[in-house]
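Researcher: Good morning. I'm working through a list of sequences from a screen, and I'd like to move beyond sequence-only analysis. For each chain I'm collecting a predicted structure so we can compare shapes side by side. This is the next one on the list. No need for commentary yet; just the structure.
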Amino acid sequence: VHCTRIDDPSQRWRLAFELRGQASTASSEATDTGAPVHPRLPDAVQLIDQVFGTQAQAVDAKTVRQLRTRLERLLGARETWDLPLLRALFDALWARMRRRRRSAEHERVWLNLTGYCLRPGLGAPLDSWRIEQIWPLFAQGIQYTQDSNNWSEWWTLWRRAAGGLDAAQQLQLLEVVGEHLMSIQHARRDKDPLQNSYDDMVRLVASLERVPAAYRVEVGNWLVQRLQKTGDKPHTWWAVGRLGARVSLYGNAENVVPPDTACAWLQALLDLDWRTVDHAAFAATTLARMSGDRARDLPAPSRDTVIQRLQAMRAPTSWSAMVREVVELDEADQKRSFGEALPVGLRLLSKEP
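Model: Good morning. Structure tokens for this chain:
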């Protein structure tokens, strides 16, 4: 890195940085989180380099597809990968992102691993920088547009990174995904590769907590109408619960949908048999959850009805507690809300009173 005079570019000086660390080897260095990295990280990076590196030799499709499995054999089940390891793996994948387009398998595996290692888009000191680096990829899109699995991984990556995106970026995502959702409503399944990623797009738009409440109301109303009229997949109710949640997972209270809208969605949920409809009970719980803010909380009768239904079906006691009083989500409920577990060692606490 050099410093150059603006008025005379020929005058330049090399900048020196003092890098203070306890060790010089990759296996014992600290990451930007301040915690030591996994001792097998160098071996993991070598596996990534075999698939996405600059070496000239060809890598067969099977080897590409097995990268995640090989990483898990080396590092343990990916559910156990902690935040420092995840971000270190992301950095290794990002450094090789230009080679993701070598084949459809390369692109799919890169999207899957990169999104998983970046989730939920915040939590580590350099995550804002990572989001700045990866956001321009959205404008580029995917290379293998006829591969439905690649579309699924594409939308999943942006859902996993959503927590780090600002309001403008989330609005751009919503606009593009909304157009796709509208376009595939009447498309033949065998004609549009986006059809098979419908669920992934719905989960993505439901996770955009920084868009204004009016947009979330519009999306939620559309989903409820589809669920009531077209018999959409029952697990889509999870998205309705996320859109109408009284307490955001990472967003601001100002973007929470109004209580009357949440009550309307809740009534649609109360008309269902929660024992047979996936995610209906937990969606109702998030809609009726106590925030401690009178401007957002549902009327007491509505919350009492939800508690009675939860107790009748013997739902986890933590769900009734969430509707009855202001409590933080436990690990299991946080996983249900996000749609997957957060990185080991990361817990997002509500910033709201």
